[in-house]
Each structure stands twice: as structure tokens, then as C-alpha cells.
């Protein structure tokens, strides 16, 4: 009976350590994703469209929705 109790305690301790490690890794992943999102936003903000869309005339202002 003592062996099974020791095994349960050992398994519980191992699971707690695994959960703690998983939480740390999830936190690191969130930090990395936030940093990456900020970098992408900065990159997207730095790129400005070079040409404006057509607003008048027949070229580029009409879409054939029946095609």
C-alpha cells in the first residue's frame, strides 16, 4: 500500500511540475506573439499605398457582378 501512495504522490508532483512548465511556455508564447504582432503592425503602417483607386471615369470604377 505504501508503494502505491508513494507512486501517487510522485505522479502528482510530476504533474504539477509539468503544468507549471506548460504555463511558463504559454506565457512565453503569448509574449512572442504580441511582439510579432507589434512588428507586423509597425511594418504595415510604414507601407503606404503608392496609387489611389480610381474614383471617376469608366476604367476601374465599374465591376461586372454578373460574370
UniProtKB/TrEMBL annotation:
Matching Pfam families: YjfB_motility
InterPro entries per UniProt: YjfB_motility (IPR025906)
The protein's name in its UniProt record: Motility protein
Species assigned in the record: Larsenimonas rhizosphaerae
